[in-house]
Amino acid sequence: IRSYTTLLHAYARACNYNKAISLFEEIKQKGLSPTLVTYNVMLDVYGRKGGRSWDKILSLLDEMRNNGLEVDEFTCSTVISACGRRGLLDEATKFFNQLKSRGYVPGIVTYNSLLQIYGKAGNYPLALSVFKELEENNCTPDSITYNEIVATYARAGFYEEGAKVLDSMATKGIMPNSITYTSVINAYGKAGKEDEALFLFHRMKKLGCVPNVCTYNTILGMLGKKSRSKEMLDILLEMKSNGCSPNRVTWNTVLAMCGKRGMEKFVGRVFEEMKNCGVGPDRDTFNTLIAAYGRCGSGAHALQIYDEMVKAGFSPCLTTYNALLNAIARKGDWGAAESVILDMRNNGFKPN
RNA sequence: AUCUCACUCCA
After folding, report:
1. Cα four-point dihedral sign A104, A109, A113, A114
2. A297 has a pLDDT exceeding 90
3. Which nucleotides in chain B have some atom under 7 angstroms from a protein Cβ?
């Protein structure tokens, strides 16, 4: 069962969720008893798989209980994060309260997962209440807790609060890392405080904290919004000399900044360059391309990319359709817009 | 053998 569990985990990591699910069935048919870890892996599989797998998660939890298995920190955080991905905050709260009423004492990992889903959903008062509760229960916050608090403030637009926590972490014995800095830099950038963001970026480096690809992507995105392309090139060169390879998000970020009047030529060029560098497009890349062409005023290219996206085997999502409609609306082609709406409905999406 | 934090796309 250990070997099978390892294999299940490998499938999960590779996003081969259906393979994991069928292997899990096979395991049970062979008469092997899944362990707590096996169940935890499967909960994670259903948590990451799209569609309506929440019921499946509940039935797995039932099955675990029927087999006499007690949940642990892995189980709890996995289930809570699964709720978060689906926007099922109430379900997460219910699950958490049930845990406690059954006598489970939540540990820091469970608290962290709850804090992160509330924070990500923009409910920062609730997120902060989790922090309060964990401290009251003598649970010691760790670096992830602090990073989540900083990210929660940052997302809510409270960059000063975020920066304050960043500065005070060290006094609690927890050093800010590249994740902490990236959160606050991003908050400054989103608030139009480019100077503060760049200052913090320099400060982190001066303090010996090494920026990673996410940090660089954050800076690139911020500069891109302001069309500061010269500085973007400097950043890309700095990445290169620091041995930090651009990832798909880096390319998507650069593509997004090409969505400006008169920059239409660059969209296609950057996309080609991306592929030449061995970075394959994902669904976000196609959404970015559609939006970028729309901003360039080229609805025709946007429609072309949509076809390319479908041909490449990616399923359009609501964002895709909204971006496409936006692109088409710019040229006033209501006929094309109606057919996109139709297409959207046929694929099971409701306009929002 | 398993979990929780930051970066890109429409609005």
Report:
1. positive
2. yes
3. 1-11
